[in-house]
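Morning, I've got a small favour to ask if you have a moment. I'm working through a protein record and want to make sense of it properly. The fold is given in discrete form, as structure tokens running alongside the sequence. Can you walk me through what the tokens say about the fold? Thanks so much in advance, here it is:
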Amino acid sequence: MANVVESEGRKIVVAVDGGEESTFALQWCLRNFVSSSATTSSPRDTLVLVYARPYPPVYSAMDGTGVLFSEEITASLDKYSRDLADSVMNRAQKICKDYNVKVDVKVTVGDAREVLCETVEKIKADVLVLGSHGYGFIKRALIGSVSDYCSKNAKSPVLIVKRPAA
């Protein structure tokens, strides 16, 4: 009888930012990609939740209005950014708890578009799942679109999950 070697599961990267669109995309991914059965077997798939914290603001000692920025203020802003990232990731992990999937968390600092594409390439992800804000052409052109950028630059298939119209 031949030995059956179980293949390693999929690596599914999901972008999370705390918004309704990314939460919906995560829930959709879990319902459609991951089995919710509470089997005793260990999970094969790995869900990699990625949150990109924005770069910390850089202030000169005095801004144009003459306001002096102290180290305490910039440290406070950085702490708020870290606390927000922790909150977003804790919420995302709670959403995943009823599914038979291993969850890894990656919080990095940088532009979300670049962070997601770099993560996908680094871990050799099987798919990148993103929510869509549904911006129109002009808004996308002005502020950019993470999903548009990733669909063109990620080194894996990209699944863009749109919320149904309310």
